[in-house]
Amino acid sequence: MYKQRTLVLLILLCSSVFKLSLIAQDRSLLTLAVSSGDFERNNSPVSLALDGIALPESPSGYQLLEISPTGKTPVPFQLEDGPNKRLCWILSGNTPSGTKRVFELRTGSAPITAAKPIVALRDKGAIVFQRNGRNLLRYQYAEASVPEGKSELFRRGGFIHPLWSPKGEVLTRIQPPDHIHHYGIWNPWTSTVFEGRKLDFWNLYKGEGTVKVPTLPVVTQGPVLGTLSSRHEHVDLTAPSSTGSKAALEEEWNIKVWNAGSEDGPQLVDFQSTLHCATDSIFTIKAYTYQGFGFRATEKWDDKTARLLTSEGKGKGDGNATRARWIDARGVSSFGKSGILFMTHPLNHNFPEQLRLWATGQNQGKENVFLNFNPAQEQDWVLKPGKAYTLNYRMLVYDGELSPELLDKYWQDYANPPKAEVILSQLGGNKKVLVYTKNGKGYVHDNIASSIVCIRKLGEANGFSVDTSSNPALITAENLNKYQAIILSNTNNETFDTDAQKLAFQRYIQAGGGLVTIHSASGSERQWPWFWRTLGGKFKRHPPLQKFDIQVIDPLHPATLHLPATWTWEDECYYLEHLYPGKHVLLAANMNTVTDDKKVEYPGNTFGKLFPLCWSEEQGLGRSWYTALGHKKEYYSDPTFMTHLLGGILWVLDGSEKLDYSKATKTLIQE
Fold first, then answer.
1. Do 131 and 84 belong to one domain?
2. This prediction's pTM
3. E strands, 183-264, in order
4. Residues 157 and 56 in one domain
5. From CA 344, how far away is CA 273, in angstroms rounded?
6. Is residue 668 part of a domain?
7. Of 15, 98, 218, 606, which sits with the fewest C-beta atoms within 10 Å of its C-beta?
8. CB burial class (10 A; 0-12, 13-18, 19+) of residue 304?
9. For the stretch 161-193, what's the b/e string if a residue is b when 16 or more beta carbons lie within 10 angstroms of its beta carbon?
10. Overall domain count for the chain
């Protein structure tokens, strides 16, 4: 799940936070990265699909934490259930372009100081979404009664009204005297053909078609968003049947009201319409001037009190029948000015759709703000049975005025949302590692016992079990098959006694077994080139123990997430030779800060001022990770170094799958 990353916001995991993770009852499940991409973000919704990810049951619930320079901060989030489970939260505040932010999903609960949640209330055949007692949006599923003296054909449900501005201005209107069939924000089709009959679901007075809501909507509410799912039937009133009506088109509305930003700041509403043929017959939406996602504005808005602006710089005078990515409708309100930015999505049919606008002077110049996005203004749209057709729109509702540049930024944020991805999963469960510590003749580090204690603690706190051994007789296929990874902790010189043991180790790695190598493991098997290549290099020498600066090359690997961009650390600065170029470097020593009288001889200027110290590789079916750090036994109780080790181990385990020995050679590879 981890791939090479570039620029990232500075991540620093303080020692107190790490100690807490070692002793807490909850455990880490997923580490997530959110990339801003090419665009600056400001309170942007984030949605991560959890397809194929089964979260364990947690009586204490879950918590989402952001890893930041001050530690770990609880973040409001929601888990959307259903067939398409998603994790949702707000990328709060400002996030510059080209940066990434890192989050962790854990079991357990954490106190959160957050804005008031979005709540959904049922109200006389409608659902009203509120925040902190303020109305935001009302969806009416019950049929609205018609004005006195008007035909009952105008009766219908399935529309949004009112839509309020953040401060409380009503921006929509239904059943105006000039067009009784206008219903706030709604999505009917004007010119259609079904089973040879022409049907109009927009102009209800014709009695050809209407829209009904046959079942109660399903709603959710929470700290991040409120959602609504409602089924609409486009009913053919002219069908030759015993009932005189027949469903011609099925439609599902999905509305999301996001809790983004301050209470008085812009409010985000996502609207999705999914269309299906209701029968085995084709449903054709014929080309027509107006149909689809429509908006009728408050009666306060007219030629003098409101203005329309499209992404292409068009307005009421010249915007009709033009294409646009967005259109901003703004007018007078009790709070000065209020508006709605309507955005269409690049995946919509016939994007960017053409607009139907009432031009300047239309409707006698009064109460004349109307618009709709029409995906079938110039050409027919044929809907076939068994297929789903989805249209997506976003509304940004605001008070005040927004510049065209800012309006376009909001559209870019919608069309190109922040990308969330899992960079580390600890959901595998029942993972097991073998810590192998065999040393041949020569120097043996006094840190081995401490490293074993350290790795055992990490395993207990993070859900993997640990076996240890220095007996090479255990390096057999039968025994290695028990483990998802082998950890060579400070091995040195001849680590294996026989070629049979080498072959068992080689085949295990080729079959997908994980490999973690620590510090002097790079001095193991100095006569076996295949081992050097697998580890990434062969130990050559090191200058005296000292403090020096380490540059974080990849700040988004789990082994480096907690480190500052430049990490000053005391250790032996290992120099390796026969370095394999396929490794992905994570850390490098700043050679300008290393005191070494012989560094002119090696490494010299081969790598400039940096020399690799830690790297990873996706090799074949498995993963490998090496750190040259870890000389002193005291380091194995140091929170910063322990977190470094933990990230490497977990990353290797996250890539472990069932061993496949069909990919392994049957003979020992020397070179």
1. no
2. 0.85
3. 185-186, 192-194, 197-199, 209-212, 218-220, 225-236, 246-258
4. no
5. 12
6. no
7. 606
8. exposed
9. bbbbbbbebbbbbbbbeebbbbbbbbbbbbbbb
10. 3
Q: Which residues pair with 75 in a beta bridge?
A: 64
Which domain-ending residue is among 361, 388, 421?
421
**Do 534 and 560 form a contact (C-beta atoms < 8 A)?**
no
Residue 4 lies in a domain: no
Distances from the Cα of 376 to the Cα of 273, 318, 390, 397, angstroms = 15, 20, 14, 26
Q: Are 591 and 603 in contact (CB under 8 A)?
A: yes
Provide the CB-side half-sphere exposure for 129 (13 A, CA): 31
Q: Across-strand partners of 486?
A: 434, 515
Q: Is the pLDDT of residue 24 over 60?
A: no
Do 87 and 173 lie in one domain? The reply is no
Instruction: Give the largest CA-CA distance in the chain.
Output: 103
CA 458, CA 464: separation in Å to the nearest integer? 8
Render pLDDT for 69-123 as a digit per residue (tens, 0 to 9): 668 899 999 998 777 789 999 999 999 999 999 999 999 987 776 568 999 999 9
| Averaged pLDDT, 321-343 | 98
What's the CATH number where 50 sits? 2.60.40
**Angle, in degrees to the nearest 10, between helices 448-462 and 15-23:** 70
Using the CB atoms, write b or e for 2-23: b if 16+ within 10 Å.
beeeeebbebbbeeebbeebee
Strands of 311-440 (E only): list them: 326-333, 336-344, 354-357, 370-374, 381-383, 389-399, 419-425, 431-436
Q: Which residues contact 417 (CB under 8 A, 6 or more apart)?
A: 44, 45, 46, 47
Tens digit of pLDDT for each residue in 202-241?
999 999 999 999 999 999 999 999 999 999 999 999 998 7
Residue type at 140 in one-letter notation: Q
pLDDT at residue 637 tops 50:
yes
Same domain, 127 and 64: no
- Residues 249 and 377 both lie in one domain: yes
Q: How far apart are CA 656 and CA 421, in angstroms?
A: 19
Whole domain around residue 653: which residue ranges? 431-663
Residues 545 and 591 in one domain: yes
Please tell me whether residues 474 and 582 are part of one structural domain.
Answer: yes
Q: Is residue 670 part of a domain?
A: no
- What confidence score (pLDDT) does residue 1 get? 36
